[in-house]
Amino acid sequence: MIVIRAGELGKNLFQYPDKILQGEKISYFRNQKEVAGLIFSHPPDEKEKMKKAARILY
């Protein structure tokens, strides 16, 4: 899990989508309280991942 604060959000905004796609959860804190969380909205199904891997091999 990646924890970010208000000052970091704007500076690193374009790095977060890549981290989310890698499976990381990002939590946004303000005044020492979590106010938002970012996660991958549609995690790939394991079966689909296996099918894609098989297609690459053949």
How would you describe this protein?
Helix content is 41%, strand content 26%. Strand 2 (26-30) and strand 3 (33-38) form a beta hairpin. It has 58 residues and is α+β, with helices and mostly antiparallel strands. The protein is elongated. The protein is built from three helices and three strands; from the N terminus they run βααββα. The protein has a single domain (2-57), classed as YefM-like fold (3-Layer(aba) Sandwich). A three-stranded mixed beta sheet has the order 1-2-3.
Strand-helix topology:
Elements: E1 2-5, H1 6-11, H2 16-21, E2 26-30, E3 33-38, H3 46-57
Descriptors:
single chain; 58 residues; alpha+beta; 3-stranded mixed β-sheet; 3 strands
Short description:
The protein has one domain (2-57): YefM-like domain (YefM-like fold, 3-Layer(aba) Sandwich). It has three helices and three strands; from the N terminus they run βααββα. It has helices at residues 6-11, 16-21, 46-57, and strands spanning 2-5, 26-30, 33-38.
Q: What fold name stands as the CATH topology?
A: YefM-like fold
Number of helices: 3
Distance between the termini: 35 Å
Question: How does the major sheet shape up?
Answer: 3 strands, mixed
SS-based structural class?
A: alpha+beta
